Amino acid sequence: LSPARPLDGDARPSVIAHRGASAYAPENTLAAVDRAAALGVDWVENDVQRTKDGELVVLHDDSLRRTTDVEEVFPGRAPWKVKDFTLAEISRLDAGSWFDPAYAGARVPTLEQFVDRVERHRQKLLLEIKNPQLYPGIERQTLEVLGDEGWLDRRHVGHRLIVQSFSADSVRTVHDLKPAVKTGFLGTPPVADLSSYAAFTDQINPSHGSLSAGYVAAVQAFDGAHGKPLEVLTWTVNDAAAARRVAGFGVDGIITDTPDVVRDAVGG
Ligand code: G3P
Ligand code: CA
Question: Where is the GP-PDE domain (predicted)?
């Protein structure tokens, strides 16, 4: 493996449970956080969106259809967008049965509930702001919830919290609102553009299919928003060979549905 590129002060890439340990429990539920904790995984990734009545919830798709029973509970409400349902309505949905009947009754968590569970396990949070174009002001609101939950204090900021997005505007907004918070941009910007990204982000987080050793090295040669070398977290790496490949490129972290497999492969 490459020499140290420590996200956690370790020479090996950090292992991050994607949507929780989502190969083994329904994604973005408290059960998936618990499963990651049971595997001894201390970083958890999630996706944050907003309900019709303005509450932040943890869900990947902008529609409730794939990961809940919303079609059965609210049959006339296609296309079942998160933004068209209140929190009370979403709280009635089963977010576990689609994955496995053993998880029947799992709920779509609020961001507060999710963060509380991560905190209870003493884990770390890689929070993705999803579809920010649908939710004006979601960056400020997310930071307010994190602040209310104590995640902007010194015990968390800098080493236990990263806020990332596919939207550069959203990442920049988070950085401008709360410069102390570590940020990540999801994507693979051209090397020629990296200096502009480095003004507001601490990480460049590409899909592993688009990754090369040269690109990782080029990113890490820049200093990011906090004056430290830009980090690279890559996603979504679910098998041992791919994990070894990206570890060999010197990435700082690997985002995975199967954190046990990746940890066994790279020793993170
Ligand atoms: O954290 C990276 C990864 O989650 C981005 O893709 O679609 O799974 O949110 P997606
Ligand atoms: Ca995500």
Answer: 13-266
Q: Please report, rounded to a whole number, the percentage of residues in the chain having pLDDT higher than 70.
A: 97
ipTM of the complex: 0.99
- The answer on pLDDT for 137 being more than 80 is yes
**Angle formed by the axes of helices 138-148 and 168-177, to 10°?**
50
Q: Which atom of ligand 1 is nearest to the CA of 164?
A: 1
CA of 28 to the centre of ligand 2 (A): 9
Annotated catalytic residue 121: no
Q: What are the DSSP calls for 179-204, one per residue?
A: TTSEEEEES---GGGHHHHTTT-SEE
In a domain, 93, yes or no: no
b/e sequence 244-257, b meaning 16+ C-beta within 10 Å: ebbbebbbbbbbbb
Q: 47 or 210: whose pLDDT is higher? A: 47
Number of structural domains (the chain) is 1
Distance CA 97, CA 99 (A): 5
Query: Could you tell me the residue range of the domain that residue 255 belongs to?
Result: 14-62+109-266
Residue 97 placed within a domain: no
